[in-house]
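Handout, section B. The chain below has 151 residues.
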Amino acid sequence: MPSTECARDDARSMSVCYQELHRYKYQVLRPYRHRTRICGFTFESDYLKLDADGTLEVRKTYAWDGPSGPAPDVPCLMRASLVHDALYQLIRERAIPFELRDLADRLLQGIAREDGLPRPLAAAVYWAVRLFGRSCARPGSEAETLLICVP
């Protein structure tokens, strides 16, 4: 006769667990690396890695919401928004200091320029995150994820 513990394990394997994604629209399909100027810090999770030399790795399955606010989800902002969201997450998780937020915002502007966003629009994007992004980078501002399991 099987033990009660085995029966419980079998029951758990028959259930489905999922999380509802409220804010995310996109998911990385292969790892992406970007050299930042954020050196001297290390961090590693299932989704992000930051090396001491400033290399940020956004790992496969990382989810982000694309450009925020009135900025459209256009190709010249997608890579920039990915790196920016990852860096803001590192700030929220206290992996890098809040004081590096301006550097993250400048990277957003620079990558957008590299990808073809005209200089005046890239400047507007920078100033928008400077004015309205503070609360999104504040440690503890991450929305709680609700894990749901049903039999």
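Note. Residues 75-92 form the longest helix (18 residues). Compare this with the example in section A.
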